[in-house]
């Protein structure tokens, strides 16, 4: 870390230890630099917006700014073009940034502990879902190489019935020996419908002729597949458990009712939106500021007479994923959202562009509801656009 005065003069620098000892050392260095001036304002730049250090700095009364690492990298290029990088250099960049550009940086949000708890469980829940997808793809690739009949037999490889049957019979020869009773039992346990028809279809696919591998290679693949199945089984269990925690924490938050009133948002998706936006009432000065943070609003590049509007590619991936999912779901439950989307498509916008514009509109509606403390109303939300169309 580096301590710098208002004129850019370095007052102190040090490598701080972790934990309470590091925080005590920081307070001591700041106290030495401030001297007897009790009114001095201390600005701190840090490349994260969460964690015990951030919370301790805010609690101590410092003005803390969460600096995006990309911002810091661009600022570093202003101070030197050599490309050199070090911890001491990074500390100097952060100190100089908050000294000269604090008015353009985003202060760390003052989210409530309830919102922080929602963020912790929702991010872990989503991460486990992403991990399940990765392991399912690995399972799919392995089966394609030695057991293509399994891909034809099972539509959802991460489903309980598919994992149960593959664990019982991980080789083509063992799968061909599965009886209708065994297949039906797995389908019933997974609460599938039309069990008899599906069991017959699965058995037929497993007994059909397919290209294979030598016996020793098949055995090696089977061992790998069983390991992947074990991981997927645990992931399924933990995802289900964490979903209950997500719903419990989100349901206890004061803003849950307003968020759930929005079209396309349920317990899990609403929790993700709350977690990534936070609940600091002063964080977003306007609907535009919230849209910019969400990454749904376009960016404009203008030079001379040329002006273009482009999608934002630097954004919170978790938030934009949740908002686009909401927009897609809103198409079937909100007539206003559907009409807005159709108008964008009529203007030659592609599906993704129209969906992003709808998400941008829904973020503005959510902002208004949260600011005024009112529930979503279909007529009020889309009245302005309806009037424009009528005109």
From TrEMBL:
GO terms for molecular function: DNA binding; transposase activity. It comes from the Bacteria. The lineage of its organism: Bacteria, Bacillati, Actinomycetota, Actinomycetes, Streptosporangiales. Residues 2-148 form the Transposase IS110-like N-terminal domain. Residues 257-341 form the Transposase IS116/IS110/IS902 C-terminal domain. Pfam families: DEDD_Tnp_IS110, Transposase_20. This is IS110 family transposase. InterPro entries: Transp_IS110-like_N, Transpos_IS110, Transposase_20. GO terms for biological process: DNA transposition.
